[in-house]
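Journal club side-thread
Mid-discussion, someone asked how the predicted structure for our own chain would compare to the paper's figures. Pasting it here so we can look after the session.
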Amino acid sequence: MKNCFKEGAITPEFIANSISHHQVKTNIGAHQIFLGQVRNDLINENEVVAIDYSAHEEMANKAFHEIRESTFDTFDLTCMHIYHSIGRVNTGEICLFVFVSSKHRKEVQKAIEYVVEAIKADVPVFGKELFADDSHVWKENK
């Protein structure tokens, strides 16, 4: 079972490197990427400056694995990667990177929606929204 967590933000360099590794896989005709980014929300007049992500990593990795297996059972994919941040991620930074590949574009378009919705519903990852005034609140998973 793969560890899907990355400490802190998922960098553009990490994403680009992942994409570049797939250029040698010439049986792939389509990729679809979802990037989740921390928003600068205003909640009760408090500005969100970051989210501190935590998880029971073993349970969460098991859930990621089950989503991955279910996705491969449901869609004709060539490969799939899921990475989620753990720890502090500032507004504007990437906290979720999902990358699916297939021979055909329609498969990846349907699969990416399936994966992201399953992650939101089934993976025990928790976010504490950190505010500019040093207060915080646990994030609702929407």
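Post-session note: The chain has three helices and eight strands.
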